[in-house]
Amino acid sequence: MSFLTIRVGPGITPPDILFKVEPLYSEPARKAKYSGNVVLFVIVEHSGKPSHITVVKALGLGLDEKAIEAVEQWRFKAGLKDGKAVSVEATISINFHLL
Q1: CA–CA separation, 51 vs 41, rounded Å?
Q2: Which CATH superfamily is domain 12-96 in?
Q3: Segment 10-19, tens digit of pLDDT
């Protein structure tokens, strides 16, 4: 499968989050009182849906999967190039922290 994406830069506006779901803690991570950041690489499609989500920095204990599950539900205002919606590469950091 081939797809064209653009990196944010001159003449390219970044996508904006329109709808965000907070990730749930996995039970093993909760029991271990584990915290930190999961970093994800995402393609924000011209439709505003995230795709091709991959883990750049993992935490483990099920938190990587929980971060992906949450971001899959996010919706964005697509990035723009010359006023037209385009698919844009993005990096998203998900913070897991227990109070």
Answers
A1: 9
A2: TonB (3.30.2420.10)
A3: 788 899 999 9
